[in-house]
Amino acid sequence: MLRKKHNPDILTCIANLSSDEVFTPPKVANQMLDMLPKELWSNEKITFLDPVSKSGVLLREITKRLVDGLKSKIPLLEDRVEHILRNQVYGIGITELTSLISRRTLYCSKYANGKYSIVKFDDEQGNLKYLKTKHTWEGERCRYCGVSKKLYDRGDEFEGYSYSFLHIENLNKYLNMKFDVIVGNPPYHINDGGG
Prior knowledge:
By secondary structure, this protein is of the alpha/beta class.
């Protein structure tokens, strides 16, 4: 009975951290990725970005597909993983905690230059960044995302949930590249009027 019920993938049952940090289950991540053209997975030059990484599941599933799809082009598994994680897969954590969780999922270490990271980067973030940003208040709302100042102007000691992909006007300054595929599950705290 234990063998039937045991599920080794922690990302299928991880609890959400808050109402706006909703983790995407692996099954849903794969359904999203199934909508992309199959030829992407065998192209060693295609770059992917998850601009709202929470658990890192989308990046992990992208990496798994690329590992399979690039076998003939990069035969040695270690070289293939190194190439994919250094050159093809990128993310932006929505909070400091989710960036650590995402790095743990993707690199097997919360620090990309850590002892157990499967690819050794020069810095602790690797290609999965956390860019601390703040809301820009115009009256009672944020200029970029429209959240309420009353709810989210909480000082530096708390997360402000001002996602960098929305609040930084020039992300190229931090990422210095363009991406072929941008895929992510959006933040849920923003009221878009049903759009």
